[in-house]
Amino acid sequence: MASQVSERGQITIDRELREKLGVRPGMVAYQRLVAGRLEVVFLPGPHRRSLYGSLHREGEEPKVITGDDLEEAVMEAIAEEQALIGASNT
């Protein structure tokens, strides 16, 4: 399957692949470069509940300061976990 890149850098994901991956509107497409290739991990869209401080331990400095930092750290951890799962299934 191939698709042409638009002037804005967009591509269309084939319907069959979207269905197999369970990709739905509103999901977040987390992108990163891995060994010179684009890896995209689809994550559920953001929720409206705050989890700020839920992992804080007494006497420990917070590891993330902003919501964006937290979101990036979570996406990176999920992407790494998905890569490990994918590697173990092959």
Task: Describe the overall structure.
1% of the residues are buried. This protein is α+β, with helices and mostly antiparallel strands and 90 residues long. The protein has a two-stranded antiparallel ribbon with strand order 1-2. It has one domain. The model has no long low-confidence stretch (mean pLDDT 81). The two termini are 21 Å apart. The protein contains two helices and two strands.
Number of strands: 2
Order of helices and strands: HEEH
Biggest sheet record: 2 strands, antiparallel
Contiguous low-pLDDT stretches (5 residues minimum) are none
Please report the distance between the alpha carbons of the first and last residues. Answer: 21 Å
Strand order of the largest sheet: 1-2
Strand content: 15-25%
Question: Tell me, what's the shape?
Answer: elongated
Give the mean pLDDT. Answer: 81
Judged by helices, strands and strand pairing, the structural class is alpha+beta
State the share of residues found in helices, binned by percent. Answer: 25-40%
**Number of alpha- plus pi-helical segments:** 2
Q: Radius of gyration in whole Å, from Cα?
A: 16 Å
Number of domains: 1
Which oligomeric state applies? single chain
Q: What does this entry show, briefly?
A:
By secondary structure, the chain is α+β, with helices and mostly antiparallel strands. The chain has helices spanning 15-21, 67-88, and strands at residues 28-34, 37-43.
List keywords for this structure.
single chain; 90 residues; alpha+beta; two-stranded antiparallel ribbon; 2 helices
